[in-house]
Amino acid sequence: MKTIAKTKLIAFLEALSDDYRVVVPLQQGTEVEMGELDGGRLAVGYRGKTRFSAKECLFPESEVMLTFDNRGAGAVETTEHTPAEKTAVWGVRPCDLAGMATLDAVFLSPPVDTYYYARRANTLLLGLNCHEVGTSCFCRSFAAGPFASSGFDMIFTDVAERFLVESGSEVGARLLEQHGELFAEAGEADRQEAESLRLAAETAFTTTLDVPALLVALQEAFDDGVWEEQAKKCTLCGTCCIVCPTCHCFNVEDVRKTRKLFQRVRYWDSCQFTGFTRMAAENSRSTQGERWRQKIYDKFVYLPAVYDGLLGCTGCGRCLDLCQGNINIVQVLEKVSHGH
Amino acid sequence: MVTNVYLPRPSRIVSVREEAQGIKTFTVRAPEGEPSWPRFAPGQFLEVTVFGVGEAPFSITSAPGSPGELELTVAAVGEVTEELHALAAGDVIGVRGPYGRGFPIGDMKGRRLLFVAGGIGLAPLRSLIGHVISERDDYGEISIYYGARNPSLLCFCEDLTAWESAPHIQVRVTVDSPDAAWQGPVGTVTSLLAKEGYEAGGATAFVCGPPVMIRHTLRVLLEMGFAPKDVITTLERRMECGVGKCGHCTVGKARVCVDGPVFSCAELLDLKEGL
User: How high is the pLDDT of residue B66?
Assistant: First the structure.
């Protein structure tokens, strides 16, 4: 275990930028957003979470998959756009690291998704534990936070003037060694301080979800009126899916670039949109209640059934913060679990 | 290096046949550089790229195996399908697949088989019927009930005639709206089947058609005494990736592209959103 002075963090990140595109939390007005290291003011000691999840580093909002060059007479030349850029992401919160485990399950289970695989292999994840818990945070209910236990190459803990740093992978350990001049050995006092921060954070949650009770309740709640009732408040904006660290649905579209060049692009989609299941014959989810229920069941019932118990929620709370219809999913789910 | 599962392989259209009003059957050669199609089962589908337009899934219409050519039957109902209809012999499309879980051929041996299809829903069943006829002695009597909205929308008329003349195959064709020349039964295929009756014992039923027809027919077959596990259907859902990632085609926990598109009625009864 090592420590690094907060004043030296920038030196470490700049050193990484020799080999990696470096993505960090940037202070943007009152919000903190992930962005490139040279794109703004590094939010070194940021509290809470970035407004959007860090999933975009592995699964971008839109990406070009293929280019088709139509040469005529049936000759089409196809170019694959497999991402090759190496990226280091610093400041990833435990809830987002946990979300990446769900993305891994979806995209890396056979058949492997080429684009996600390449990006995943080329991405260094440098996590940042949460020593302060937001009012909408409930990651503790999933054991996803406030401190991360896996899913990172390195994990940082904010301890006053410095970060406590641990490696979580061979690459992370090698980097710690390689940049040894920036790091110092952690002492017992550092460890104890981190531990007391963890304990304090763990008891600071004001939002909690009884996950075991919910999983039981959902077995009988499919036909509950609660879904249609809540959906009345839904504005169909899809924000809950956009900000979610585990939502992974995408649409694919061919976009004309020139007369002969076409790009096949995929971009985030949302099961909350009316067109998500629309076909020529009919729409298999025709009401917003069905779509709202789908979001909940997919995260808590279907995904775990397909991917060995893995849940599609990490308790990051962003969908509570940003719901345009002011729907508090946790309150709704607690009602489902513990009666109306 | 990971194989890019999203990469379409160029395949040439060998011929195009007008199947019915607004419906064409495309014969497609194995992808360039491949001597034959990968082995496929009846009920599986291909993701087809019309270059410059987009991609959509279509069930394979022809009988299985590893032939040099296979057939896709497509109704022009959207952007990709309309542009596909504009293509001709010699044109190149992109293909991925075959994908999905086909019909449970192993469980059908020795049984009587009932096929119930509406409109272009006969397309995936035609692949299975072709396979069954190629191994005719392995199965009991075959009944095919087929319906369309009107006579101009009936697909595979030559096949229907050929099947009718084969031994121990009964073919019944009906339309909702007859024209002056129509001499057959009038009404939906499900009501014709219900009226004529069918002995469910020892039989397996296969159903495909528009979603509302499938739901209605499954109910009728259960009422006729079929066990849910002996009623098999194949579902259509909006798909993007075809390989279980994009989230569009789910029916409860099942992804139609990888867990289906073929499901037994018992499986659907078990799935949330199934029936």
Answer: 76
Residue ending a domain, among B99, B114, B130, is B99
**Is the Cβ of A220 closer than 8 Å to some Cβ of chain B?**
no
ipTM here: 0.94
Angle formed by the axes of helices A94-108 and A114-121, nearest 10°: 140
Per the structure, the count of domains in chain B is: 2
Task: Provide the token pair at A179.
Answer: 């940049």
Low pLDDT (below 50) residues in chain A? none
Strand ranges, E, within chain A? 2-5, 21-28, 31-36, 41-42, 62-70, 76-80, 87-92, 123-128, 154-159, 162-167, 184-185, 250-256, 261-268
Q: How far apart are CA A272 and CA A269, in angstroms?
A: 9
pLDDT digits (tens, 9 = 90+) for B91-112: 999 999 999 999 999 899 999 9
Chain B residues contacting A via beta carbons under 8 Å? 2-8, 10, 12, 49, 51-55, 75, 77-78, 90-92, 94, 210-212, 236-238, 240-241, 243-248, 250-253, 255, 272-273
Inter-residue contact B77 to B33 (CB < 8 Å)? no
CATH number of the domain bearing residue B29: 2.40.30.10
State which amino acid sits at residue A10: I
Q: Where are the domains of chain A?
A: 2-338
pLDDT at B163 over 70: yes
